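Re: the 217-residue chain
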Amino acid sequence: MSKIIAQILEAKFQAAPIVPLIEADDPDVAVQTAKALQAGGLDVVEVVLRTDAALDCMEAIVKETSDIIVGAGTVLTVYQAGQAVSRGARFVVSPGLVDAVAQYCLDRSVPIFAGTMTAGEVQRAYALGLRTVKFFPAKLAGGVPMLKALSSVFREMRFMPTGGVSAENLPEFLAVPSVVACGGSWLTPKGSIEAGDYGAITKLAKEAVALAKAARP
């Protein structure tokens, strides 16, 4: 993991340990969404590669905003990782753990949060040299009790739970010491985006930041 990017992310997560997910097929919409999140106090975003224009959307955020750390999510292959990095992604997030993708990022000092949900996957990630992984799908994979169990065994590992995280259970996840941040799509509801109601997104971001500060004073 690049020391500089790692330090930046560490500082960002200490201030607001939340990574909102952006899914868009229009670069302008993606940029407005990212700016709305930033106005609410969240300036680390994950653009998920789930649309044909996802890379264009991610690149637009990189070019048309300032002081936002942009990562690529739902990265499934080495090729996708390369495309994302070449277009400005500062970190990579995968739903699962694929050795080749993880090694590609490690070799290039690109932070990667590979998805894990079992002890075997966390152990493999540890053996590869990863020390922070995604825990996905967090709620279905056992939630907070599972995170506590994994943390007791893998004492050096830190986790980014994503999948089923919401405003309601965010404080519970953040109360686990090994959780570095939580990822979530509840901050970018499709209805609000389709209606062009970016103020609603800023409001959700502010509420999430307040919850995080209460959970981690």
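The longest strand covers residues 18-22.
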